Amino acid sequence: MTLDLLTTLRQQNPIVLTLANDVTVQDVANGLNALGASPIMSAEVDEAEAMVTIAGAVCLNLGTLTKLQLAQMRAVGAAANRQHKPVILDPVAVGAVPYRLQAAQTLLRTVHADVIRGNAGEIAALAAWNWQAKGIDAGTGSGDLVAMAQACAQKYHCVVVLSGATDIVTDGQQVVRVHNGTELFQLHVGSGDLLSSLVAAFAAVQPQNLLAAAATAATVLAGTGELVAAQLTASRPGTFAMLLIDKLHLVTPAELSKIAVVD
Amino acid sequence: MTLDLLTTLRQQNPIVLTLANDVTVQDVANGLNALGASPIMSAEVDEAEAMVTIAGAVCLNLGTLTKLQLAQMRAVGAAANRQHKPVILDPVAVGAVPYRLQAAQTLLRTVHADVIRGNAGEIAALAAWNWQAKGIDAGTGSGDLVAMAQACAQKYHCVVVLSGATDIVTDGQQVVRVHNGTELFQLHVGSGDLLSSLVAAFAAVQPQNLLAAAATAATVLAGTGELVAAQLTASRPGTFAMLLIDKLHLVTPAELSKIAVVD
Amino acid sequence: MTLDLLTTLRQQNPIVLTLANDVTVQDVANGLNALGASPIMSAEVDEAEAMVTIAGAVCLNLGTLTKLQLAQMRAVGAAANRQHKPVILDPVAVGAVPYRLQAAQTLLRTVHADVIRGNAGEIAALAAWNWQAKGIDAGTGSGDLVAMAQACAQKYHCVVVLSGATDIVTDGQQVVRVHNGTELFQLHVGSGDLLSSLVAAFAAVQPQNLLAAAATAATVLAGTGELVAAQLTASRPGTFAMLLIDKLHLVTPAELSKIAVVD
Questions:
Q1: Residue B223, Cα to own-chain centre: how many angstroms?
Q2: Which of C241, C92, C221 is nearest to A27 (CA)?
Q3: Is residue C41 marked as binding?
Q4: A186, closest residue in chain B (CA to CA)
Q5: Cα–Cα distance between C257 and C5 in angstroms, integer?
Q6: What are A178's strand-pairing partners?
Q7: I need a surface site. Which of A3, A123, B254, C15 has the fewest CB within 10 A?
Q8: Is the Cβ–Cβ distance between B59 and B102 less than 8 Å?
Q9: CA distance B16 to chain A (A)
Q10: Structural contact between residues C249 and A38, judged by C-beta atoms closer than 8 angstroms
Q11: What is residue B2's predicted lDDT score, i.e. its pLDDT?
Q12: CA neighbours closer than 13 Å in the CB half-sphere of residue B153
């Protein structure tokens, strides 16, 4: 992983197609745009092929899925696979809602996801890992989380980003841990959605090394959040969200390198 | 009504399922999250039962209704009624658009709303009260408004929150008036939507006393807005919206008690 | 064009119906509201006639179009034409996605757009102008852009607002250029969407002179953005978005007159 990829991203201004979560779509578009990517959203299956053609990567977010949107995701995902554009899947709430787990599994039978980005409960559900019993917020340590992320990556032949206090990025063998971040991410809805679309943006500029692309995305977002949080004297979720958009535009690889804790 | 319910809410972190207004969904999710509840949204009827099962309460918002969403609202509302989870209805624009009034009335024939939250024009339409003639913004005084809210509550056997400069909360007999607030709420779109979902959050933690839950929700939002407005030296709707999210997270029952004007 | 129209708008508080881009709908609603208009959104074709009846103007935004939404746009547009309410079309991405160009052209065969607001690539596509070859961001100068905007206006018998570093407003003959603005508009998603809905707001209060209404809308938004940008010491897209909403509420015709560069 190298943070110079951020400079490349800003030079190339990749188009990222997000099939979005209605709840967070505006923030995701603004986060992509502020960082230096070019967001485009779509809701109509009939423009799937054309949208994928102009995009550098695709993010499929199950946050407010419908049957119509699932059909669109199958078409967009298949077109992206054919056109060799990276596909990032964000399996929102598959750990909590059986319908969503089934929808994600069905989607993954016809679309290859190059990267899956989820929290512990979501990755556990996809990996069919015995995690639920321990509760989503109270796992027994990062050892388990790493093995679970690796199992998920091996099962779906993809890179997995398991985000949390420490983000775990793995292709099933290699593991990168990003220790940066701030608890303020939990106070603003859509941090995970944004990370998934940022992974797509970095994957668009480094498709030949998705592990590095995903790790860079995680480091950039977690590090930028940490820089913003350091300025705040109280837990202000509204102010944090605004300053995060500011800083995604202003942050430099040098600033991030100074604080990055990645192993 | 007691403001200690806010402490209970923060301890329990109830899941609130909102079938949302597309215009304001991000703000509503962030407001719920900042206060201490856990927002979840859904757009697919096939996950209705599962979503209700994990939720503590349900908010049905007609803000950008479609026929598909109305079918989903019937399923979610019926499941919530069966599972004894509080249902809050926000009948957006039923006072102005006949199609919406009909949709709300049809919905209310199969789904019992435990709380209805609307402005004067919306409550008047549901109560079939002669209000329109006077104009929505120029009623003849709070006496009429109270009687109208009571009539609506009696008609639908529910609690009514009629929001305005003074919020009126009633179960058809008892009446609580919340006099807090700020005109800045009118300058930011979605204050009413947020109140409806906050009523759901408080209903989730106090389902046995919905009058108190609704009155607390109204006091918390109106009081928090008032505290934020007191810091501003000009009418800044963008800044107000951001600081409101901040303060929903930071506000304490003690701060609110000091300024609450409730009778 | 006269900036006093802003005072009229604030007095009349026109209802603007926007068939919205899901990505930016919240910001557009807040921008309209902050300025002094009254936003309403709708997603259901069956309420088309009633919505148009209460609205002063209509904005059709193709940003996240679906087949269902196109059917709604046909109904809303036809109703607005019949009721002599101004129709503003925002043809998002018709320059980049052939499906969207076809959708816009089909829509324009049954609905008369009174104003079309787009960027250079979008107006070029509608005018069938040889622009794409030159690249969207690297045209050969404003001479070409004016001729292209005029050709589009003549083709569709409407006013065209071609927005960019200089906004060009034309009815096919007369041309108004608005030189105000800031590059920060490019850093916040939805500035174009907001302009389209603001054009609708001004069209609602001055339907008999849509060229002036559109030019005023462009001047108000560009000038307000310029005033906000002048306060910022760095390119902060999040802060800019928030302060833009503030200033749309606070800005006066006198302030705008002082800085307006319109010819």
A1: 15
A2: C241
A3: yes
A4: B33
A5: 12
A6: A167, A262
A7: B254
A8: no
A9: 14
A10: no
A11: 85
A12: 23
Residue among B59, B61, B65, B69 at smallest CA distance from B100: B65
The first and second tokens of residue C147, run together, are 């001729």
> Is C4-259 in CATH node 3.40.640.10?
no
- Phi/psi at B166 (nearest 5 deg)? -115, 130
Q: Which CATH number is correct for B4-257, 1.20.1250.20, 3.60.15.10, 3.40.1190.20, 3.30.360.10?
A: 3.40.1190.20
Q: What's the pLDDT tens digit per position in A34-81?
A: 999 999 999 999 999 999 999 999 999 999 999 999 999 999 999 999
Q: Which of A21, A242, A250 to mutate to test the interface with C (most CBs of C within 10 A)?
A: A242
Nearest to B197, CA basis, from B7, B20, B46: B20
Give residue-wise pLDDT tens across range B223-232: 999 999 999 9
The answer for residues whose C-beta is within 8 angstroms of residue B137's C-beta and 6 or more apart is none
| Domain segments of chain B as ranges | 4-257
Distance in angstroms (rounded) separating the CA atoms of residues B44 and C46: 20
User: Under an 8 A CB cutoff, do A30 and C188 touch?
Assistant: yes
Could you tell me how far CA B85 lies from the centroid of its own chain?
16
Give the span between the Cα atoms of C17 and C57, in whole angstroms: 6
Q: Is the ipTM above a cut-off of 0.85?
A: yes
Q: What is the pLDDT along chain A (263 residues), one digit of tens a residue?
A: 689 999 999 999 999 999 999 999 999 999 999 999 999 999 999 999 999 999 999 999 999 999 999 999 999 999 999 999 999 999 999 999 999 999 999 999 999 999 999 999 999 999 998 765 444 444 445 558 999 999 999 999 999 999 999 999 999 999 999 999 999 999 999 999 999 999 999 999 999 999 999 999 999 999 999 999 999 999 999 999 999 999 999 999 999 999 999 99
User: For tokens 């503030």, what's the residue?
Assistant: C246
C-beta separation of A71 from A45 below 8 A: yes
